[in-house]
Amino acid sequence: MALDDEVAERRARGDLEGAATLAIRTLGPEILGYLNALLHDGSEASEVFSQFAEDLWKGLAGFRGEASLRTWAYRLARHAALRHRRDPWRRKGERMETTQASALAGSIIASTVLRNEWRAQQLQRLRARLGEEEQTLLILRIDRGLSWAEVAEVLGGEDGARPDEAALRKRFERLKVKLAQAAREEGLLE
User: Fold this and answer.
1) How far apart are CA 32 and CA 47, in angstroms?
2) Alpha-carbon gap, residue 129 to 109, rounded angstroms
3) Contact 6, 52 (CB under 8 A)
4) Contact 120, 15 (CB under 8 A)
5) Which residues contact 152 (CB under 8 A, 6 or more apart)?
6) Nearest to residue 139, comparing CAs of 10, 32, 24, 26?
């Protein structure tokens, strides 16, 4: 039985706890991987994942099923990450600048890992330079294989407005060009 059907069946029986547990256990590893890729910090990703799980647990009763459960879960995770980043307490802390982190990572990588691992790190660094929405677009479309309709649903605003799928595809094409240019500048592509 498909996850959406099984969760719907449990909800219909009034077993919200069982439905939420099933959804979190099934989708949790995938969502946590998304948050790790998006936030680049395991402890922050864990914190946001906890918030996501709480949001799913509380919100499942009101889930209307207009999108798949998987898409809705990604949307909850994205909104939890956005709230986390907007948290005033987080903005007070000093963060290492990307260029400093890149220089440090570059010196360590050059002396300790093989060329292929170095390239993987550089590509991750290029990805980290992107904005949150660009990273999310890449993660959802490439890493997670979501359809354009699902990506549009996840990227929809809190007001329920969804971006146009054709516009998302165009942004994705521009993003690929931007990443290719940055990779050439870094010497990762010929």
Assistant:
1) 10
2) 18
3) no
4) no
5) 162, 163, 164, 165, 168
6) 32
Task: Report the percentage of the chain scoring pLDDT > 70.
Answer: 81
| Position 92 confidence tier, pLDDT thresholds 50, 70, 90 | low
CA distance 190 to 184: 6
Q: How many helices (H) and strands (E) does the chain have?
A: 10, 0
d(CA 190, CA 185): 9
pTM of the model: 0.63
Of 62, 30, 44, 65, give the one whose Cα is nearest residue 140: 30
**Residue showing tokens 């570059």:** 106
Domains and their CATH numbers in the chain:
1-95 (1.10.1740.10), 130-190 (1.10.10)
Distance CA 3, CA 70 (A): 9
